């Protein structure tokens, strides 16, 4: 499923996001960097899975692309759509039209509007209505579901409604932020198949997930995040081949942590944004750490992928 010859639809370059916060009980404020030098690109017809532990910046990436960051956020770097660098106003115009988000929280559904209106959008034609009914059947949502309000849905039903909304949006860029929690394995696989089909139709799809196992069987490429930055971009095939095909020590650790690969835990913990180490953010936990790891580490190409590590070969 290689997409390397297709044009880039969405490109994020050296993205950094900080939040202005009060220090303790005083009136003093300081900036807390939560994403730094994060880069990822998605081509037409490509599904890129974004993986990493909680707090690594995955959801913030989605909100930055959609222009949904709060007022106390400062953003630097570039987010481009079809070659054009986007401003906040650009993102707001694209949101819900060219860009669609499947949010992590089901609370994004409007509690005062019935499901059918939220999924179909305003003034739907018969084709849109029929498409909604078909996707509901696929997700095993009873026909009566469309007449319900969000509070009448179970968590799993609400999740499937959110996915249906993105499918029917017609957007060129679809970002799915943890779309499978609350779904059984069969339904989770069905949801991921839908995203795969959207990519095969030419859409650019970002799948943010903790389900690494499912991701590397559906994705074209995997972006590995750690402590707010990208540490590796690899073909999904590299994860399927095994640890030897990966480049970054953290990516290898994620692979070893899968149940079928030994369920091996990694010592230490991901650093808090306020106390990031110098240089390589993974260095305090890395067995290969040297003094050079405390310097700035750029992304570089290694064996057909990209990695932020001086030891990768």
Description:
With 313 residues, the chain is of the alpha/beta class. The chain is built from 9 helices and 12 strands. Helix 4 packs across helix 5. 38% of the residues are buried. The mean pLDDT is 94.
Task: Tag the structure with descriptive keywords.
eight-stranded mixed β-sheet, 12 strands, 313 residues, four-stranded antiparallel β-sheet, alpha/beta, 27% helix
Report how far the terminal alpha carbons are from each other. 24 Å
The count of DSSP E runs of length 2 or more, i.e. the number of strands, is 12
Low confidence ranges: none
Spell out the helices and strands N to C.
EEEHEEHEHHHEHEHEEHHEE
- Structural class, by secondary structure, is alpha/beta
Average pLDDT reading: 94
Radius of gyration: 20 Å
The number of helical segments is 9
User: What is the helix content?
Assistant: 25-40%
Shape designation: globular
Chain oligomer state: single chain
Q: Describe the sheet with the most strands.
A: 8 strands, mixed
> Numbering strands along the chain, what is their spatial order in the largest sheet?
6-7-8-3-9-10-12-11
Strand fraction band? Answer: 25-35%
């Amino acid at each position: 499923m290689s997409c390397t010859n297709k044009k880039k639809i969405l490109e994020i370059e050296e993205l950094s996001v900080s939040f202005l916060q009060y220090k303790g009980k005083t009136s003093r404020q300081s900036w807390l960097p939560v994403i730094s030098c994060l880069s990822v690109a998605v081509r037409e017809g490509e599904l890129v899975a974004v993986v990493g532990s909680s707090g690594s910046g995955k959801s913030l990436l989605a909100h930055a692309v959609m222009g949904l960051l709060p007022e106390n956020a400062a953003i630097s770097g570039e987010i481009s759509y079809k070659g054009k660098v986007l401003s906040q106003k650009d993102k707001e115009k694209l949101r819900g039209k060219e860009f669609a988000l499947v949010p992590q929280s089901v609370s994004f559904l409007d509690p005062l509007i019935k499901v059918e209106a939220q999924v179909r959008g305003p003034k739907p034609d018969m084709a849109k209505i029929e498409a909604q009914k078909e996707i509901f059947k696929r997700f095993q949502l009873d026909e009566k579901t469309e007449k319900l309000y969000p509070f009448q849905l179970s968590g799993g039903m609400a999740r499937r409604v959110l996915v249906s909304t993105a499918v029917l949006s017609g957007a060129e860029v679809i970002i799915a932020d943890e779309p499978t929690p609350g779904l059984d394995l069969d339904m989770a696989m069905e949801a991921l198949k839908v995203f795969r089909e959207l990519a095969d139709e030419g859409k650019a799809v970002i799948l943010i997930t903790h389900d690494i196992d499912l991701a590397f069987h559906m994705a074209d490429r995997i972006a590995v995040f750690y402590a707010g930055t990208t540490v590796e971009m690899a073909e999904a095939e590299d994860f399927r081949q095994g640890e030897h095909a990966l480049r970054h020590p953290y990516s290898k650790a994620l692979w070893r942590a899968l149940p079928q690969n030994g369920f091996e835990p990694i010592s230490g913990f991901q650093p808090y944004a306020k106390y990031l180490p110098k240089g390589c953010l993974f260095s305090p936990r890395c067995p290969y750490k040297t003094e050079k790891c405390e310097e700035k580490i750029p992304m570089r190409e290694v064996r057909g992928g990209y990695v932020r590590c001086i030891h990768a070969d």
